[in-house]
Amino acid sequence: MKRGLLLVGHGSHLNPNSSAPVYQHAEEIRRRGVFDDVRTAFWKEEPALGRAFDGWDADDITVVPVFIATGYFTEQVVPRELGLSGPLSRVGGRTVRYTGAIGAHPRLADVIELRAREADAGPDAALAILGHGTPRNPNSERNIYLQAERVAARGAFREVTTVFLDQEPNMRDVLRYTRAETVVIVPLFVADGWHVDETIPEELDLEGPETVRNGRRIRYAAAVGTHPSLADVILQAAEEALAWG
Amino acid sequence: MGMSVLEAIAARRPFRLGEVEAEPDGAEGWVVRGPDGGEPRQVEAEGSAIRAAVRFDALGRYRPLSGARGMPGGWFVRCRSREELEQVLETVYPLALVHIRQHSEGTLRVVGLDAVLRRQTGRYEVAAELSEEGRRLAVASVCGACVRVPVWAGRLPKEPESIPCPEPCSVFVSFCREAAIWEREGAVPGRDDPSVPFADFEAEGNALRNAYLRARAAAPAGEQR
Question: Which has the closest alpha carbon to B86: B47, B34, B41, B57?
């Protein structure tokens, strides 16, 4: 039996960085040789989701959506475009396993902690996990809170809080929501794209990796989704799906 | 029609695919070249390096549509094997070889525009409101700027280097969304701005937007909505 892994991303018509982490993790997993075939597909780039299974000779394909939020894309768009009927589907004579958004996986908390430590977060620091969020979809925030709870439960940082780009509690008030002298903001985004590289630093008036404001230090980490160890989380999610039978 | 791309690969003969050319190199290798232009520079046969070479046009604008005409030139890739050649071509034109093979075998699954627009939800639901004439002009504007041949629109790949396109892509659907809104709002063409990205259809300086709106303005009145 040939086993395949399909990493699904959003992609973008305007920002080339959007799909970069999906390619990056696919290349790493391909290099490890765990699956016979490792491919990518995107909502807004190529190959399109609707053609994602064209030309495969794998009998058993595991699909991992590299999305942070469990919501519109992972629950409606991706299953519709791929022709899935649930976590375990038959599509064109193949078994297709669908893991759900990587943003919900328990091991993502490891990657968040790694990103925080890279930005010099120590036991006395406050960690602010920054999600996109949107008032239009209450599901959008769910995995951000879930991961914040997991990281907080480890007790590695003095405080762990959650802020958002597009909803309350808003990232602009991050110093109000924390007390520690050092606040490390970790963007729980897939890509170092438009938001992580441009809109967030601009809106927070950040001066680089570290900004001193009112005698407190704000450190800004890279996106969680670009961390090399996300490939381990993807592989674990895929291995768990293979155990479904 | 000459030798197909798949036949040329099997026979180790030079061939064109879209805007790239490939020729045998040594006993088993191949060289893939982008269009003429600029100082020749070798690119590693790795996905990230190839994407960096082909995903930006000569003005540095992002090219989200792999088949968009005007691929930057001057680059070449040396492939050590047929397998590496196919991987390089897959990176440059995703699924092109698969769709050429399926088209030649008569197994290509073709999905038309109606079906694609009908299944859109959320932001893209409005695309289904685009008139028949708008759809025809969108094919002329968007697909006319792409090397893939829209089999889904009834076109036939006639040249050996042609790549059959089995289904409207996300760029096309995105264009239909904007075109439906332009119809509703009576948009008029603006001046092309070369700094506007290829698929930023909401920007007044977008070249495809303006080509479409100019063609629409020139169409007989009875064909406009």
Answer: B47
Tell me the pLDDT tens digit for each residue of B164-211. 999 999 999 999 999 999 999 999 999 999 999 999 999 999 999 999
- Measured CA to CA, the distance from residue A22 to residue A13 in angstroms comes to 15
Quick one: DSSP state of residue B60? S
The answer for residues whose C-beta is within 8 angstroms of residue A87's C-beta and 6 or more apart is: A97, A98, A99, A100, A241, A244
Of A12, A43, A54, Cβ closest to residue B98: A54
Tell me, what's the ipTM? Answer: 0.94
Judge whether B105 lies within some domain. no
- Whether residue A46 and residue B111 make contact (CB cut-off 8 A), yes or no, is no
Q: Which of A15, A48, A76 sits opposite B170 (nearest CB)?
A: A48
Contact yes or no for B64 and A12 at CB 8 A: yes
Q: What is the CATH number for B23?
A: 3.30.1360.190
Residues 6+ apart with CB under 8 A from A22: A7, A8, A9, A11, A40, A42, A66, A190
Task: Tabulate helix, strand, coil % of chain A (nearest 5).
Answer: 35, 25, 40
Q: Does some domain include residue B99? A: no
Calculate how close chain A gets to B98, using CA atoms only, in Å: 6
